[in-house]
Design goal:
The complex is a heterodimer of chains A (253) and B (173).
Chain A (H helix, E strand, L loop, with lengths): L2 H12 L5 H13 L1 H20 L7 H12 L18 H17 L3 E2 L7 H14 L8 E2 L3 H7 L19 E10 L2 E10 L2 E9 L7 E5 L2 E8 L2 E7 L3 H13 L1
Helix pairs in contact in A: 1-2, 1-3, 2-3, 4-5
Chain B lengths: L2 H10 L4 H12 L2 H18 L8 H18 L10 H4 L10 H19 L2 H12 L4 H8 L3 H18 L9
Classes of the chains: A alpha+beta (253), B mainly alpha (173).
Bound molecules: zinc ion.
């Protein structure tokens, strides 16, 4: 076997996808030709590095929910051609997330422990905003683990300045901030994570009424409190004990 | 399509969702676009499910996902703007990160860049073979080309990667 032919077959040889006699011929050539043997080393090294470093991805829960949701929809049963979406933008994804919320709220009864939130509608929009933020690429506008970058980032974007405490030592990691539109207003959101759980902290000017609440909606815990002239909501699927711990630390700054 | 057909679809096809999503992630190279493409592909798969008889459900689904990805790639897609302080500067190393992990992270980044830069027809066979471990026959079914073409694309794709990673001495042909 000549080197040119060997080089041609090396990749399939590594995959054990050659005919037996070809496989044998390549093996013999490699035993006697150091240049082709080096080439094989390079290809095998490349292959190994891909396998070691590049992973298979698990389907995100949000995508599973979107798929379950579309399979359950009536139009999935009609044999009509797939409707063309106007463009591949993020907005269909948001619409789908909205549908997930609608389905979830009709099946899971909201258990309200104390009903002193300003209104159900606001709680609903905040949970919506939380779920929307879990879509890929939506959690943070500014990505930073540094409170001294996140806090000034809000200047000029919103007219109030939320607390951005550093809670690293307690295991609540600052991941960044963003501006959300809730109820037609731009409001700052500070984001933290604990293990795989996202905590969104929304802030608004306090309206003077002293209010605090803790409720569970669509599986998300929501806690409201006031501090420093601002009204905060924390939303997360973290268990309530840890969320309460987070809020106690957040209040302390 | 009856409720029973949808249940059969969920039982036979949905177990391969991670494979579908993995392929889309490496082909379209963006997690949020990959989600849109996979959702569209699964709905198409449901509509074509009548045409699926027996056989390899994974390869059948991957072929649909692959076609949706290629359609997506052929359209003109601008790059996204993400405001990020950390992205501009060389990423701030986490002080808790060990040297070994830092090395692995930079190696992974180099590999991802090299793979992302490959032409689509090479990237797809590399992903299907190296990450998803399909046989040449299965790859030929998914991509819709003869086994000989799979063989030569894999050989050329690997060669280019080896050169990009500084492992290959010879010029890629
Ligand atoms: Zn040789």
């Amino acid at each position: 076997m000549r080197c040119a032919e060997c080089t041609e077959l090396l990749s399939a040889y590594m995959d054990d996808e050659l005919m037996r006699d070809e496989q044998e011929a390549v093996r013999e050539h490699l035993a006697t030709c150091s240049e082709c043997a080096r080439e094989e080393q390079a290809l095998a090294g490349t292959s190994r590095r891909i396998k070691e470093n590049l992973m298979r991805h698990a389907t995100p829960d949000v995508l599973k929910a979107r798929i379950r949701n579309s399979l359950a929809r009536d139009d999935a049963f009609t044999p009509a051609p797939v409707p063309r979406r106007p463009a591949w933008t993020r907005w269909p994804a948001l619409a789908a997330a909205g549908l997930v919320v609608a389905v979830a709220s009709s099946t899971i009864a909201a258990s309200l422990t104390r009903r002193s939130l300003a209104s159900d509608a606001i709680a609903e929009t905040i949970v919506d905003a939380h779920i929307r933020s879990l879509m890929p690429g939506h959690l943070t506008d500014v990505v930073s683990t540094d409170q001294h970058q996140v806090k000034p980032w809000f200047n000029g974007r919103v007219d109030l300045s939320p607390a951005v405490p550093n809670l690293d030592s307690a295991g609540f990691l600052l991941t960044g901030g963003r501006v959300d539109y809730v109820d037609g207003r731009a409001i700052p959101v500070v984001t933290y994570t604990r293990r795989q759980h996202v905590i969104n902290v929304f802030a608004e000017p306090a309206d003077g009424r002293s209010s605090s609440a803790h409720e569970t909606r669509n599986g998300y815990h929501m806690v409201e409190w006031q501090s420093g002239g601002l009204e905060y909501w924390a939303v997360s699927d973290l268990n309530s004990a840890e969320l309460e711990q987070f809020i106690a630390l957040f209040k302390r700054g | 399509m009856s409720q029973r057909d949808v249940e059969r679809f969920e039982r036979i096809v949905l177990p391969h969702l991670d494979d579908a999503y993995t392929l889309a992630r490496y082909l379209v190279r963006d997690e949020h676009d990959a989600q849109d493409v996979v959702q569209d592909a699964v709905l198409r798969a449901l509509r074509y499910f009548d045409g699926y008889r027996e056989g390899d459900a994974r390869a059948w689904l991957l072929a649909i996902v692959r076609n949706c990805c290629m359609t997506w790639l052929r359209r003109d897609h601008g790059t996204k703007n993400v405001i990020s302080f950390d992205a501009g500067a060389p990423s701030v190393p986490d002080p808790r990160e060990t040297d070994a992990r830092a090395i692995q992270r930079s190696e992974r980044a180099a590999l991802t860049r090299a793979l992302d830069a490959l032409p689509d027809e090479f990237r797809e066979v590399i992903v299907l073979r190296e990450i998803q471990e399909l046989s040449y026959k299965e790859i030929s079914d998914v991509v819709g080309v003869p086994i000989g073409t799979v063989m030569s694309r894999l050989a050329r794709g690997r060669k280019r990667l080896a050169v990009a990673l500084g492992l290959g001495a010879k010029e890629a042909s």
